Amino acid sequence: MNFALYKEMLANRPVRRLLLVGMIARIPHSAAGVLLTLHIVLTLGQGYAAAGAAAAIMTIGIALGAPWRGRRVDMVGLRKALIPSIVSEAVIWSLVPHVSYAWLLPLVFVGGLFTLPIFSVVRQSLGVMVDGEQRRGAFALDSIATELVFMIGPAVGAVIATSGLSALGLTAVGLSVSAAGLFLIWFNPPTRSETACSPEESAERAADELSAAEAAMVASAPGHVQEAASEMAPAVSRNAGLRSRVARNFAWFTVSVAALFAVAAGAGMVLSGSDVSIVGLLERGGHENQIGIVFFFWCAASVVGGLVYGAMNRPIPPMLLLLGMAALTIPMGFATDTWSLALLAILPGLLCAPVLSASSEKVADLVDEERRGEAMGWYGSALTGGVALGAPMAGIFIDTVGPGGGFAAVGIGGVVLCLTGLLLLSLRRRAARVPR
């Protein structure tokens, strides 16, 4: 292990500034979920089911918007791509506290659709700023910063909402995220290296190579073939151009990248399901005022795990890390009180930041810079989709089986996902080795 990597990276001013801005920008959004839920329940007088529906609609908006926002960064650059998000965050979250529940739903969907793509921007920029072992450490630091955010944000949001200031809190969320977006525009961290060509240049280069190949083939053909080729040239050129564009648009989405998206979805499912199960188990036991103790142990373990993983000389496959985290989540269902649950949360918590760090690092390694923003957007959507699945999945098992059922459901689900993925990847590698 090389813990000196962290000192080297934090001595790099652009990297240090990007990690700090990313952390600060995430705090308002981490508080927004709690603020929105308690605003709907306490201020609008709706039930938790209505609050859950609003959260689900916002999550759908985020999942749909993340790849599109990432693609805009790839196509037009960071500064132009962030402008719609900056305007939307300020306007939407200033309106949400002052409308009825019926109007709130479409507003939070649009807000989710135009969410500032802080996750994909930070990871994409880190992938350009650092490489090799430093990239692993940088992603680990970003995962650790995210854990610290989720120690702070929800707690602050709960205090603000229960103090009767949910409207002020939601407005502050939008304004502070917009301010973070403006700072990103001023800072303008790189999203691709100077040697990487733009998407338009890549398209022109591919078209030139295709035209040269076609010309060489036609020139070497007999006269009657050349005559036929000249008549068919426009149609062939159009079809070839369409095929080349489609190939360029989807070439980055390989089986390996799809496996990483599955890991992201599985991690989101396990984490959100564990979140709900912790609340359910303590609430059923009458210890809901001690939820913070369990979350502190869980998040602190993740910070330690992230520091250790980031300093390692060799990466660990993300699917193996997720397999361990999912399997170690199951025993949390056997906890009998707050302290036993907090201690059982340490082991899966140790693997939380490493899972997210390892999978992000692998996406950055596998996807070229020209499409990395879009890939990170899809990665974020997969993670968000897993979060949206894990919470209701755990809730159903908590209601039907008991508090421990939520941990078992998401833990076993994660194990099955990983074992299936490992089996499919093994079969694919075996098939690739078979001579044709």
Automatic annotation (TrEMBL):
- The yes or no answer to whether the keyword Transmembrane is present is yes
Keyword terms, alphabetized: Membrane, Transmembrane, Transmembrane helix
Any stretches that span the bilayer, and where are they? Answer: 20-42, 48-66, 78-96, 102-122, 143-161, 167-187, 250-271, 291-312, 319-335, 341-358, 378-398, 404-427
Q: What single Pfam family name could you report for this chain, choosing any that match?
A: MFS_1
> Which Gene Ontology MF annotations are present?
transmembrane transporter activity
Checking InterPro entries in the record gives: MFS, MFS_trans_sf
Cross-referenced Gene3D superfamilies, in alphabetical order? Answer: MFS general substrate transporter like domains (1.20.1250.20)
Q: Which domain of life is it from?
A: Bacteria
UniProt-listed PANTHER family: MAJOR FACILITATOR SUPERFAMILY (MFS) PROFILE DOMAIN-CONTAINING PROTEIN, PTHR23542
Q: What is this protein called?
A: MFS transporter
